Amino acid sequence: MTERPPGAPVEPHALPAEAVAAALDVDPAIGLAAQEVERRRRSHGRNELRRHPARPLLGILFDQFKSLITALLGAAALLSAAFAHWTEAAAITAVIAINALIGFVTEWRAVRSMEALRSLTVQHARVRRGGAVAEVPAGDLVPGDVILLEGGDVVSADLRLIEASKLQCDESVLTGESLPVGKRIDAMPAATALAERAGMAYQGTAVTRGSGAGIVVATGMASELGRIAALVEQAEPERTPLERRIEVLSRQLVWLTLVLAAVIAGTGIVAGKPVLLMLETAIALAVAAVPEGLPMVTTLVLARGMWRMARRNALIERLSAVETLGATTVILTDKTGTLTENRMSATRLHLPSGDHAVGATADPPPFPDGTPGRRALEVAVLCNNAGLSESGEATGDPTEVALLRLAARFGLDRAPAVARWPELREDAFDSDQKMMATVHARDGGYLYAVKGAPESVLAKATAVAAPDGDHAMTEDERAQWRARASVLADGGLRVLALASKRATGADEPAYAGLTLLGLVGLEDPPRGDVAPAIAACKAAGIRVVMVTGDHAGTADRIAAHVGLSSSDSLPAMDGGGLDALGALDALSAGERSDLMRRAVFARVSPAQKLDLIRLFQEAGEIVAMTGDGVNDAPALQKADIGVAMGKRGSQVAREAADMVLRDDAFASIVAAVEHGRVIFANLRKFLVYLLSCNLSEILVIGIAALASMPLPLLPLQILYLNLVTDVFPAFALGAGEGEGDVMARPPRSPREQVLGRRQWVAIAGHAAALTAATLTGFALAVWWLGMPVEDAVTVSFVTLALGQLWHVFNMRDRGSALLANEVTRNPYVWAALALCLALVGVAVYLPPLAAILALAPPSAAAAGLALGLSLVPLLLGQIVKGACRR
Q1: Any residues with CB less than 8 A from the CB of 152 and at least 6 apart, and which?
Q2: How far apart (Å, rounded) are the C-alpha atoms in residues 198 and 187?
Q3: Annotated active-site positions, please?
Q4: Per-residue pLDDT tens digits for 793-802
Q5: In a 3-state reduction of DSSP, which class is residue 48?
Q6: How far is CA 261 from CA 122, 253, 532, 690, 793, in A?
Q7: In this model, does residue 836 exceed pLDDT 70?
Q8: Which domains, from first to last, does the chain contain?
Q9: In three state form, how does the secondary structure of 257-323 look?
């Protein structure tokens, strides 16, 4: 736990403001002197949260060489150099360098993109220093600074308030509570919970109403925000499934290569073949077995996905996060600011004459003057400090803005009402009384306008307004109104009661003898694009679970509104219910199943969010966590994919996330899921393509060696094929747009490998066809066309090169049409084929390159033989595809 700065009170909320000022040696009316500010900054450091240090360039470059594939290529290069095969050694080294360069550039661009987002905003604060008010960067604040606050400010450090005039703060990013919290300067008991410390304002929270001033008591990592940031550092990041799978695949390839090379080389040496020849064969096998394009193409495909998502307002920090989001089976989402707009709207107006639902239809007719409805709306606009311009721009507390909008729907604006009833004074909202009153005068009479919590207003009300005249409130009526308020509250609404009284003076008790006018139900509306996004998730087989710090009733209502839960869903479970269950490790299988069936968890703490993520992960799910608040940051770090909001999100949340939504749109997550699924399908396609090509090269070399045949392919020729006929078509497959029904399919199993049994069977079958065509071409060139072995190698080279190029069309889905499918519609495939055909021609017909590769221009008969045999694997593949489709 981070300690408070030396000299700062340990529990500032429990001390009078004067005592805090004395402890920090500051006069609140003057502030700190410039020299003292510099001294304290040297002592306490800058007011900044500790960021994860940016990955150094050398670290990014070094990571590119950690691949086992790269290690095996390096061993092949060293072995070539040891036997003075300098051209081969140089070529293999060049491949390693190219792979590393591409990976380095793409990862570096990703890091720079995230740093650009983090530096989009620089906060400032108004401080009182040396008797003058100045605006300074928030990072320059020190303990003892006196900060001035106004509505709309973001609090830049932890403050002990010394002034508070109708001050309220939105602390949802810290506590998860969506409603603004009233502030005052009174000291509180030392044991007061964080969310109830009315005399404090905390870093990262927003001032929604009023004005005030406070003394800085903690900055940077010593603030409450910094304490939660420290939790992020304790939550170890999870390696993504793609990273784990690629590592497994790489290990398998390395062991396969080593075993084959050892068996073939050992068999040849035992049989009396020259050691040098067998070592050369082993090098050729190593080069053939390793798909040199795998790291390069994987990086390029994921990088392209990252850049495409950036254009969709989703910024990816780690390349593999693009694919992992496509594998997501569960999305745990915050409510406030993620599913909702983080602003209040009045949806119900309950009057003595009946209930009025204020929907999105045409404006209702105005209430006549003097009716309970008109009087209730007058109180709503008079007992109000918010502003609403003619253009619809609002300022002030979201709840009061919602009341102004409600009255405007009924044709009543604040300005005419205040002109009719000028305000004399205000009794500010008091958290103990839970009411607010304003006093107005006109023609010698006085109107007291009151709004507040229903239980508080009903306790003070002695009369009820009615269409036929006010009458005394009976106890039965009081109970009925309480029941009505409970019904609205159970529906997830925040409920306010409106009341008034007429008086002969302006100094009467504001809350005595009130006449109840009605109830208003307010809700934080869901974002307009959330319901379709959740529906798309359900269609894709992805569960969406709300995990919020708000009330269970409110959370349940929002969940039902956006389609997250249904009538047969289990009710929300709150943090108390989770605590009652005990430790996660001690839960029975039935209790775990019950938890995982729930759609809403309310009033949960940051630690409980971590437990819920672990619960799903231990069940084999791949978990994405969305959020914007500081309290979401540890969970964002722990999840397989953390998704933070870029606009409303706190700095800590963005630091912890793998993906940042710059438009804060939940729908962008669905787009990312769709794109991630396409990328996985593309990864699988180009892996099958690459590995079948490489396996064919292994079989060509291995069978020739075991059969005591001359090598049909030389190491440099294999390397050229891998970089030409592998990389470009593979990248073209990886850049495909995918099929249109990708979001209509259920998510693949989290335990499903990138290459399953069906894919390995396909790899073996395609490789066998390519091998048979190549060896047949080599044999026919020698025995039928009578070509020297050195020239026959050209036939096997061209046969395999062209066969691998046509083989790209075998990568279409089994259920797709022969001519119109995702491969034939991919323009990158045709471009890759054109380029690769030209490069094969250059290798054969350009003398300098042909000399290096030991190739010779083939005769017409040899070229025809190679072309004809190269089409055989394609024809066999299409026959099998057609049979499978039928």
Answers
A1: 206, 207, 208, 395
A2: 8
A3: 334
A4: 999 999 999 9
A5: coil
A6: 59, 12, 55, 20, 21
A7: yes
A8: 239-314+678-737+753-885 (1.20.1110.10), 323-341+527-671 (3.40.50.1000), 345-523 (3.40.1110.10)
A9: HHHHHHHHHHHHHHCCCCHHHHHHHHHHHHHHHCCCHHHHHHHHHHHHHHHHHHHCCEEECCCHHHH
